[in-house]
Amino acid sequence: MKTRVIYSLMALFLLVIAFSCKPQVKQPIIVPNPVAINTDSLTIKNWLYAYVVEKDIRIKEYFRYMDSVAHIYDTLVAYDLTAHLLVRTNPWIIDTLESTDYYRQRKQGVFIYDQKEYIVLKKGDTLYIPTDTIAQQIIENQAKTVLDVNIPEMKLRVIEGSDTAGTFLVRVGQNRINQWANYEKMSKLRTKTGSGKIIHTYFKSAYLDPVTGETHDKTKRDDGDSTFMALMPWLEPEINGEAIGQLIHPTTNENTLGKAYSNGCIGVGEGDMWRIYYYAPIGTRVRIRYNLNVKDEDGKPIRLKDIYGKKPKIG
Question: Going along 17-58, which residue ranges are E strands?
Fold first, then answer.
């Protein structure tokens, strides 16, 4: 009898321990009286849940944090809730991330030495989880999106169906041939044309120089000051069915935008990279072309400079 009682007490003790050690999932806050808000061109008349940020979130922990919030609420909604969808529902987040751009902050008299320490979500901020209808609208827009790059125009456009959601100045590959330090071969540095889709996203705060093979976690800015490399998304497209290492990524030197300056990649401003990233989840179509005949802002036909018209330099 005593043995049976002892075993019963032990079982009860283990149950108590197991319950106390079980991870406690933050319960969603149900919003009883929704208020209208805007996200891009969509007007949200209601949402399913509102999540209140419980502590300040810095960029160095931002990506993991957003994934965790999406994971919690994904079990409560009928659609596939991703961090991309969550941010598109709360477009102020993109605005905040854009504002961390080194040069934008510098113009306001603020020097950012280590962008990773920048607070982008503050304690008490609210993240809204969309209804099925709103989520489906955003998903359908994403399916219609194309990243369109015209090399001689030095521009990347985010096109949603027949609408242009954004136009961004970029830098493209040089008209030059170089021998890579890591490879015993000559390589053209021109940006290659073709069609494909985004196949990978990388989150980098360091840069591997393909010419020297060196890794850098600091960079010298256009104003002469040095900072840590920003932690930002880099997009890798597959072009004509092949991953050729021609990435779409932020540049720390905005003076190179609008020039044939890179080793083949498509460079964009740091602030612009955030907006492009959230409009281009994995699977988004990419089109890289070389069209000299375009129209200016007034709709008048113009012919661009043929930056790849001459034989590439060697060295």
Answer: 29-30, 37-39, 42-44, 47-52, 57-58
Residue 85, helix vs strand vs coil: helix
Cα(219)–Cα(14) distance, integer angstroms: 55
Taking the C-alpha atoms of residue 45 and residue 186, their distance in angstroms, rounded to an integer, is 57
Determine how β-strand 313-314 pairs with β-strand 176-179: parallel
pLDDT tier at 46 (50, 70, 90 boundaries)? low
pTM (two decimals): 0.83
CB count, 10 Å around CB of 154? Answer: 21
Write the burial class of residue 145 (CB in 10 Å: 0-12 exposed, 13-18 middle, 19+ buried): buried
Q: Hey, is 308 helix, strand or coil?
A: coil
**Cα–Cα distance, 5 to 10 (Å, whole number):** 9
pLDDT per residue over 82-140, tens digit each? Answer: 999 999 999 999 999 999 999 999 999 999 999 999 999 999 999 999 999 999 999 99
256: CB partners within 8 A, 6+ apart: 171, 262, 267
Cα gap 254→266, rounded to integer Å: 13
The pLDDT value given to residue 9:
41
Look-up of token digits 């990773």: 116
Say which residues have a Cβ less than 8 Å from residue 315's Cβ, sequence separation at least 6: 176, 177, 178
User: How many Cβ atoms are within 10 Å of 214's Cβ, its own excluded?
Assistant: 10
Q: Half-sphere exposure of 303 toward its Cβ, with a 13 Å CA cutoff?
A: 1
Residue with tokens 């319960």: 27
**Other beta carbons within 10 Å of 112:** 20
What amino acid occupies position 260? A
